[in-house]
Amino acid sequence: MRLLLVEDHVPLADELLAGLTRQGYAVDWLADGRDAVYQGASEPYDLIILDLGLPGKPGLEVLQEWRTGGIATPVLILTARGSWAERIEGLKVGADDYLTKPFHPEELQLRIQALLRRARGLANQPQLHAAGLQLDESRQCVSRNGDEVDLTAAEFRLLRYFMLHAGQILSKSHLAEHLYDGETERDSNVIEVHVNHLRRKLGREVIETRRGQGYRFSGDAA
Ligand code: CA
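A: This is the predicted complex of the input protein with calcium ion.
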């Protein structure tokens, strides 16, 4: 899953970037509101974390411009303690959730997971499951019939994306856009390699190849 983090306080941004990367998210970071308006509308993010106090353009205006422009990406806003007016305004202009600073990193992690599931119509799943597999996102491993299967970081990222999009045909370029940040060179052959590793670990039938179209993870479409 690919996230946009808009936060101008560098120490906090650094900390969040490191944490989110460890959790297997590809993250692009911006500190300026004007840049955020443009990039949030032009890249296919799965979720955006938006600070409201930003140079260039206030976060509330950034969010308003995205929503007016038809950008429906889930947005979690970061607000200052005690500023209930900001939170209300944020929710009114289309924020999906908010966190008040300072917050515990685990709370952010759980809210992100919940928002991503909700966006896929899977809000009822406390743990992602599809095709007989159960994914433990905090431990980054998967179990099948109660047996735990270890995953590399790259396999976990790919499998999580597949499980959030079960039953959908996903092209290699689509997968690359959602699994790598804007700075990383995207090589769709690498995706093929990881798909083959996942098949070897979880069974060939789990990921089907659609010639000329891409891959389809088995299970019901969300
Ligand atoms: Ca700020």
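DSSP finds eight helices and twelve strands in the chain. The two ends are 16 Å apart (CA to CA).
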